[in-house]
Design goal:
mainly beta, 10% helix
Amino acid sequence: MILSRPKLPKILENSTLATMVDDGELEDVQLRDVDGTNISIAALDLSGVLLDKVVFLGAHFGRVTMRDVSIQASDLSSAHLSNGAVVRAEFVNCRLTGVDFSQTSLHDVVFKGCKLDYANFRQTDLRRVNFVDCTLQETDFGSAKLSSVEFQSSQLERTVFHNATCSKVDLTSSQLLDIVGLSSMKGAIIDTLQLVTIAPHLAHAVGIIVK
């Protein structure tokens, strides 16, 4: 699947965490090696921005808009990024444990080499999203809409899909362990080996008794 990748300027000026907090926006800049643990910003607009080795552990953003953003080697664990919009963005080698993307639109987004355990994607609209070499233990996609989403070489363990809507969701190269809400995954694509693995759980989900 071909995604629209982030379009960052060739030259990015350096910015500061104070500027981001005070202005509520960053445009065509880079922010490196800063610690914004537990910061709170009512609304944040990022456009043409590189975030490298930043820490937003437990940060709270009332609403986030991201366009053409690259976030690398950063820690956003338990950060609140709900009710936002993320377009043409990439998260590379990031720690996103428990991050809250609920009720957010994610379009043309790549998560590569990320830890997404316990992340919240409830009621999120995911379109053209790739998860590559990621871990998704107990990640929650409940009531989410997933369209043209690929899980590549990732591990999904007790990942939740209750009441999700799936269209062209490719799981064929990933490991599936104890998936929750299999009956809601109509439209997902798996291979025959994966089918053997999940068959008992699928039978249970649709009420089939196996003796």
